[in-house]
Protein 1
Amino acid sequence: MNVLIDHLGDVLGALATTLVMFLIAGIGSIVIGVLVTVARVSPIPLLRWVAFAYVQFFINVPLLALLVLAIFALPDAGLIAPLEPTAIIVLAFYEAAYVAEAVRSGVNTVAVGQLEASRALGFNQMQSLRLIVVPQALRAVVQPIGNVMIALVMNTALAAAVGVVELTSEVNKINLIEAQPIAIFAGAGIIYMAIALVIGVAAGWVERRVAIVR
Amino acid sequence: MFTSTSNRWRAPLVAAVFTTVALTAAGCSSSGSTAVPGATSTAASGSSDALYKNAIVAKAADILPNSTMAAIKKRGKLIVAEALDAPLLSQQDPSNPDSVTGFDADLAKLLAIYIIGKPNVEIVPPASETREALLANGTVDVVFNTYTITTQRAAQVDFAGPYFESGLAVAVKSDNKNIKSIDDLAGKTVIVGANTPAVTAVPEKQPTAKIVSFGTDPEAVQALTQGRGDAYVQDLTLLASDAVSNKAIKVVGQPFTKEAYGIGLKHDDSDFKKFINSWLVKIQKNGTWGKVWKASLGTVVDSKIPTPPAIGSVPGS
């Protein structure tokens, strides 16, 4: 740990990058993921099919391949964006597929009677989804979404391979100078572990707050 | 099936043709690869050419009892940490995975011959971040991995050598007329390879330059041609080979650093270090070192064989 403390400024800067990537990609992935789930349980076959294809694509293509494609192939197609935003967008779309799967399992926990009741009260499809199904589904999947968020933090490390200077990339650089891989990477591991722990505890707290007491 | 049989032979045939072409082009033989079916040890095939046949072998008296070299000899193979994806230094032939060639790879095989009498090398591809740990826990015997000798690293591992000296140079897009050397990079975005000496050397020379690092050399070249940075700083030899194969980039100016590459060994193994240093002196004197250079790095650099660095000439070695 001493080695990392010697480079505290650099480490904190890189940690900030990691956290910013996590926050933006995390919020983005939850929004996209919920929309994908809504499409997936919607009555329109085309939407259902597109959402299914989306989830299958992002779950079955490795994140690193997506990152390399977005960073190096898109510019050849005339689309060039700075590295960090590109990585954040890819992370958001990738994790959204996992969020969508988690939320879909939540949708399955909402009893059929709820939907029948909403119809009996005169709600249209959109209203029942927005007011009855999704809120209850989300309450049921706080902990699974927390796990997806933890995976997202770990996945930000892959952005190091495509030039984003985040925590992993920075400790790599420090190790290049100091040549103490075990101390340095154990230190970085502890930082990631601490972030994961905070997310896990926060998810547990949110879950208790929003739990439906039946 | 007939077709599958013919396919099975295609890869070795192609490899053989390429090898012949490469040898003719290089004008001298060092990195031959004969596709031996069922070769037992990785990278140990391709040992049929003259360089390996005439390679020197250590005298029995040099292999001290209970030493590291004695253990390697008894085991019958040298375990080396070397890259599989470094062009000209240590690259695996995609059509023939048993053949790993280049400056580092050939020297590793010659060292195996010197200790064991046969080019039996087992390759453990290291990440730059794990080299010290691989040596410390005994996973590998030696590291041949463009391992720059530094005093910080010398506190963790021992370095034999230096066995090669190179330097960092600057590459830009071919149509760039403003950047002529490292001095023109102030405030510019500079692409470097992750875990290369450039990561620290560029900020030392140009503190205002913005550094972007990429995992592999092809990615960095791609990023340069796509305009993600103004320049790419990397080892001169590697840049020269990139510029030969890719007309979109060019090397400008002279190298601005001196990198002395050493052979990484377990810390405090002075017998082994002395043993390897004496081997380095021998292959430098009998011209083997020059031949290996000529067949690998020498193929892209338009100059005569450089003078090998003096053993122990840098701090940390």
Note: Residues 139 and 210 of chain A are 6 Å apart (CA to CA).
Protein 2
Amino acid sequence: MTATQDTRDVVVDIQDLHISFATDAGTVRAVSGASLQVKSGEVLAIVGESGSGKTVTARSILGLLPDTALTSGAVLLTRKDGSDTHDVTTLQGKNLRDIRGRDAAMVFQEPSTVLNPVFTVGWQIAEGLRAHTQMSASDAREKAIDILRRVGIPDPEHRIDHYPHQFSGGQKQRIVIAQAISLDPGLIIADEPTTALDVTVQAEILDLLRQIPKEFGAAVVLITHNMGVVADLADTVAVMYKGEIVEQADVHTLFAAPKHEYTRALLDAVPRLGGRRFRDRVIVSEADAAFEPVDVDPSATPVVAAQDLRIVYRGRLRQPDFTAVDGVSLEIRPGEVLGLVGESGSGKTTIGRAIAGLTPVSGGSLNVLGVEMLGVKERTFRPIRRRIGFVFQDPATSFNPLLTIAQCVAEPLVVHGISSSAQEARRRVDELLEAVQLPKAFGDRFPHELSGGQRQRASLARALALDPELLIADEPTSALDVSVQARVLDLFARLQAELGFACLFISHDLAVVDLLAHRIAVLHNGVLVEEGTGDEVLGAPKHPYTQRLLASLPVPDPVEQAARRETWRNLRAAD
Amino acid sequence: MTIPTNVAPAPVRPSLWKRLPVVHQVRSSVGLQRSMLVGGLVLVGIYVITALFAPWLAPYGFAQIRVGDTLFGSQQPPSSEHWFGTTVAGYDVLSRCLWGARPALLVMLAAVVLSIFIGVTGGLLSGYFGGWVDRVLVVVADAIYAFPSLLLAIVAAIVINHGQSDLWGGILAAAVAITVVFIPQYFRVIRAETVRIKSEAFVESARVIGASHPRIMTRHVLRNSTRTLPLILTLNCSEAVLTLAALGFLGFGIEPTVAADWGYDLNKSLSDVTSGIWWTSLYPGLAIALSVLGVTLVGESLNDLADPRLRTRRAASQAAGVVGAVTVVPGGVLSAGAEGIEGLDLLEGTADELFAGPTEDEPLARPSTDEEGGRS
């Protein structure tokens, strides 16, 4: 096949692509009739929720589908200089290897698993170079140093001989990007490149990705579910839903005037900073009438009171101890939702686990429902457990796969002797399922037969089974799709208003916390840097870390995001 | 064999019969893997039936050497009275082969039952509690592992019945030896699984609820850590048969007057081989080989089928198949739900006023293969 005149600047041209998978339950179609074009120097974002076929579509460009896949249609990939065009779906073996890396390269989601830990990063970059070109070892090394410098690794002459574990998560992703652009491909496929990274690191990687079309002349296919990232980076957007591309438009048009119903729903579901909040929302319909926010009595005895709390993980074999939480003081009063925000390693989950009695307290004081947690015995704390509910991050693993949902939800009732068996508790379980808007019949299903959102709602039902005074929610929505997250958060706010439990809501997402929390506490490296109401913390942040965190958060609006990007650059330059 | 799907909100769950361990595997296998599994199952079936119905199947008793007053005669070649001939002691080879399935089956059951209970309990305690309990048990298991099983069997045979075995003496000797050697295998597998499952979120959530240790261990950890047991179990069964045969061959087996023992018969046929009498060694040898082959085939097939990466599947057909509300998970989903936005509402429960659009298209994220397979 040769390139025709009019397709010269089209890097990849996907025509009527259908992909099916052979599974145990018969054939499942992942992509049906997708057509896409990516022009050189363009950033195309493919947006969709899990299972929409966005990753499968992008992987087909590199022929990276498993053996069970059956593909029809054409994926025409053109070499950067326009000299050659291949239909990737028909390529095999050596021809396929030949285009991988040279015509199109891939940046994966999790940088720490993509790099081989037993080789130096320089070796790994040179490996790709030498696989495709007749480059000498020293030339490849020169080239690798050059690329590392261009992706922003400081001191590349020295660091090229370092191993992946000697780099931070953000630096590792830079190295993965360096690996991808080392062969000067015409197209880079970035599959959720920033999902595994913290917000502040994400902002830097996005900044780097934005330079790729300009500096290296490569087109970028960006796969993401984060509308903020799309607004920040993309030139054009393709929205995928159930294996089809339902809408394709340039980024400004899409955000300003989405045409398809699904796109509108998706954009509506994205939580926005300073946007509508559940607790002060206007009553718009009949159903909302019962939705009265809880008034917090500031003089009431706190449910949780931490004074100078310290939690230390003992170091193993000659490694120093790790202080996860260092001198944190906070209080949660009855009926209050405290949002705990921080990046990975900030100690926010550790605090939640300490309150639930899963992690021992090392110093200071932590009073939970009248029990001092410093040196507490499991026997003393067990009666308190029934007054605490816990919602875990990943709904897929927080249910015993061999028990039905009803048995799982009944478990706390049985353990605390309120019901003698799961059957006896069924009436209460049905009530609980109804409270979280799941049909009663779902009680007889097994956890894997529910979707992520349904499972997380069942998880909420289990946490509420004993009518707790305190609920700890550890990133309850971070494993969910945006639209599902919106529903779970809405439900959460309703139940909190109705039942009036106090809540520690742990999240890395400022916008989500802003929706729910009465007060927000920001953690950074185990230290509480700022605490206050949503307006105080997000409206006028005092601590530089909070300011940086806020500026790093991409908002789902391309115009506003362009302005925020400038603020972020200035902040970073000031550091 | 596509599982029928309908638009009803409840997913179609296969009937109990189809979810039974081996039945499910037969149904989910194709091609060579299926023939291996079915072949193994047929061999095992023949073997078990022979063991159960030996008195009716065998033309003579295992220790019978005469009909009325007429002796069978020693080393008679195969004939219409004695299809497989007779041995040097004048026993009927066919009858001895059929009767011999009984002690072999008993050894399998005794060895596996004993070792499974001790091994699983030890592994569970060790993995769940960790600390010094774990360290001591692991050291003990490692020490046992280093012991040659046949030597142990011989020692056990001598201790239990001074080398001259009756039926239960021989079976117990083999069973004890095999038990001791197998315990570390079960122990390690269950311990590894327990350590993994202990850190799963659902065990943490049980702890947060306030469940006691015994309850967490039995209800949450144990039931989830037994996935690989059927595999080791079958492989150990074949090893048990081999150990019994080896004991018999070495002269520590069961006396011919109390039970038929393939290993013993092989031992006694050693001298026949050089004088051209093939039937006394061929048939007991075949019996051992086929029973071990059958059990091993089942075990290996279960292993391959349990691993989504090793399992072969039917090729995808372009036009056919359920399309839509299914997440693409390598390994597959249990069944497809309803299609379209209405279907999603059904799946998601009552419609919500928060937004009118579709909610999510991921009804069954967990691959069905995880149910019994997973790691091995």
Note: Residues 386 and 466 of chain A are 6 Å apart (CA to CA).
